[in-house]
Amino acid sequence: MTTSWDVYRDAVIQTMQEGDTEVAINFGDNLSEMINDEVNASLGFDEAPDTGEGIEPPWGPYYVGSYVLTGGLKSGYVGSCIKRTGKYYALRLTTTSGGQLFDLHTLAYTSSGKLCLGFYESLATGWCWTDCTPSYSDVVSAVAAVAIAVGVSYATAYVIANIVAPLIVGALALAL
Q1: Degrees, nearest 5: CA angle 127-169-87
Q2: How far apart are CA 79 and CA 57, in angstroms?
Q3: Per-residue model confidence (pLDDT) at position 58
Q4: Is residue 52 a part of any domain in this protein?
Q5: CA-CA distance, 70 to 48, in Å (whole number)?
Q6: Which pLDDT score, from 0 to 100, does residue 171 have?
Q7: Which of 31, 69, 79, 140 has its CA 20 to 30 A from that of 104?
Q8: Strands 128-132 and 100-111: what pairing?
Q9: Is 101 within 8 Å of 94 (Cβ atoms)?
Q10: Residue 46 per-residue DSSP state
């Protein structure tokens, strides 16, 4: 059974209202203790200012092999197939030597009464995808697809996707 975006969004909001922001990632180590404060920031409780110079990461960096993840909640215009203004989750993947691989923007919005997600990679591939009423696994798959497109191995791409998907979903749920 797949959990729909709407059901997951309601669970995240209820959890946030109860004051319990722990995120459990069921892939290897439990990262929730390491990122609890950073999740609060990425959910807008302590949002970093937009300096116009890129992401001011409220969480990270996190290292996955030879890759570095940073991300955060931002506000502004997201182009390509999305063409909307709002709060979006920006995720950057770089190498440990500093080469940037991708800059993924994920925006939640409503269309015809449905909750939709748009993904736009603005640096390397220009990949863009939108889906109304996406599942949580769609979010994982989208992040993994972008990582694979820029040359990350399949296994590492899914490790990265499973680390960041809860942060993306949680941040966007509260940004709506």
Answers
A1: 70
A2: 21
A3: 55
A4: no
A5: 13
A6: 75
A7: 31
A8: unpaired
A9: yes
A10: T
Find the length of the chain.
176
| Residue 102 tokens, joined | 């991708």
Both tokens assigned to 120: 């736009």
Cβ–Cβ under 8 Å, residues 90 and 164: no
Domain that holds residue 148: 5-47+57-175
Query: In this structure, is residue 106 part of a structural domain?
Result: yes
Residue 137 parent element (H or E): helix 136-149
Structural domains of the chain, count? 1
Q: Is residue 109 part of a domain?
A: yes
CA atoms 34, 143, 151, 123: torsion sign: negative
Residue 17 CA to residue 100 CA, distance in Å, equals: 36
Eight-state DSSP code of residue 3: P
pLDDT tens track, the chain, 176 positions:
343 344 444 544 444 444 443 433 333 333 333 344 444 444 444 444 333 344 444 566 888 889 998 888 888 999 999 999 988 989 999 999 989 999 999 998 888 888 889 999 999 999 999 998 888 999 999 999 999 999 999 999 999 999 888 888 887 777 66
Token pair belonging to 176? 């709506």
